[in-house]
Write a structure and sequence with these properties.
Blueprint: H1 3-13, H2 18-29, H3 37-49, E1 53-58, E2 64-68, H4 70-81, H5 90-102, H6 108-135, H7 139-167
Antiparallel strand pairs: 1-2
Helix pairs in contact: 1-2, 1-4, 2-3, 5-6, 6-7
């Protein structure tokens, strides 16, 4: 997740002030209250430094209004067109499991069970969220959650294959 490109997305739609950008970014990412305001303002400062965003105006409540510059729009559109390689947090577990295998870790089964339990917890939470988005007719969020669930299902299948091979 890139705060930089999230902010460029929001500023592409309209000029806005920092706090509103924070709230909208959390909504865009479906992660209420998890972005540090300092991260927003630090990123905005960098975007201004790089001349992608400006903050010349003040709104009626005396808050800085941030505006996307033409160079920011170009950077944003270029980023949208760049393909994304497949990476996810599961890469960390793949590495951890490879390390465990290399040293013949005695608790490999426990490690796999704990990972499966965490994935199942995520599946349950995301399934509830997916249902809420479906009811609220938020199609794009529903589809994003569904994609994440498909990746988690693949991870569970992979762990099951490992467990089956360990048993054989």
């Amino acid at each position: 997740m890139s705060v930089k490109y999230g902010l460029l997305t929001l500023l592409y739609q309209q000029d806005n002030h920092g706090y509103e950008l924070k709230v909208e970014l959390e909504s865009l990412l479906s992660i209420k209250g998890k972005i540090n305001p300092g991260q927003i303002y630090t990123t905005l400062d960098r975007l201004i430094r790089d001349q992608l965003v400006s903050s010349a105006e003040i709104d009626d409540q005396e808050r800085k209004l941030y505006k996307l510059e033409k160079s920011g729009e170009n950077e944003f559109k270029k980023w949208l067109l760049e393909p994304v390689p497949y990476h996810s947090t599961k890469d960390d577990f793949h590495f951890k499991w490879s390390c465990a295998r290399k040293i013949h870790f005695e608790q490999e089964k426990i490690m796999l069970e704990q990972q499966k339990a965490m994935i199942m917890k995520d599946v349950i939470e995301l399934t509830k969220l997916k249902t809420e988005f479906l009811i609220q007719n938020e199609e794009h969020k529903y589809l994003l959650i569904n994609g994440t669930l498909l990746h988690l299902e693949a991870d569970l299948n992979w762990i099951s294959q490992i467990e089956n091979r360990i048993r054989s």
